[in-house]
Design brief:
The protein is an alpha+beta fold. Helices cover 45% and strands 19% of the residues. It has 3 domains: 59 residues, Beta Barrel (OB fold (Dihydrolipoamide Acetyltransferase, E2P)); 63 residues, DNA polymerase, domain 1; 51 residues, Helicase, Ruva Protein, domain 3 (Orthogonal Bundle), CATH 1.10.8. It has 9 helices and 5 strands; from the N terminus they run E-E-E-H-E-E-H-H-H-H-H-H-H-H. It has a 5-stranded mixed barrel. Helix 7 packs antiparallel against helix 8 and helix 8 packs across helix 9.
């Protein structure tokens, strides 16, 4: 088991990063939450989970233990794989997801792409006793300058399509959200677009 990878962050996009450690570049899938907390070109340490299937070995990376813990809790539920768990952590901040589970807010959990009402109910049923009741809300991130508008739009569209959203639907959601708030952060833009797509 690879518990963490510590090295130089040589590439990042909203769904994955490459961390170089001892001359090896590790491709690691990440959530929007982690994406917003790391800087390309800097030293980076991500906690990791290695998921092994017959046709692939995939590393998932997390900025902190809370997010890794939630990922492991979600994937422990029958029918929820790493992709849905990562989608959940990209759609809702970990603290908000914990709060929703602890307070049995099935509607909030159901807003995650790929999670229907039965899955949302199963998440609450299986995890509510494992989640602390004192989970707190989100902390707003720093906003991007208007000069990064096109870069933000393009990165958001790439991320949404990688997550399985149709290109035309993604463009409509992203453009609408950018008109309403041109200085929205990339991670917030993708998170909100996931909810409206």
């Amino acid at each position: 088991m690879i518990a963490y990878i510590d090295g130089k962050l040589t590439h990042k996009d909203p769904t994955s990063v490459i961390i170089e450690a001892n001359g090896v570049g590790y491709l690691i899938k990440i959530s929007l939450n982690t994406f917003g907390k790391i800087q390309e070109g800097e030293r980076c340490k991500l906690l990791t989970v290695l998921h092994i299937k017959e046709d692939a070995h995939t590393l998932y990376g997390f900025f902190d233990g809370e997010e890794k813990r939630l990922f492991n809790l979600l994937t422990s539920i029958s029918g929820i794989g790493p992709s849905i768990a990562l989608m959940a952590l990209s759609s809702i901040l970990p603290s908000d997801l914990e709060y929703a589970i602890a307070n049995e807010d099935v509607k909030q959990i159901q807003m995650i792409k790929g999670v229907g009402i039965k899955t949302a109910q199963r998440i609450v049923l299986e995890l509510k006793d494992k989640i602390k009741k004192d989970s707190t809300g989100a902390v707003p991130g720093a906003t991007l300058s208007n000069s990064l508008y096109n870069t933000t739009r393009n990165e958001a569209l790439t991320a949404l399509q990688t997550l399985g959203i149709d290109k035309k639907i993604a463009e409509k959601s992203v453009d609408t959200l950018l008109k309403l708030n041109p200085s929205i952060t990339l991670e917030d833009l993708i998170r909100r677009a996931l909810k409206t797509s």
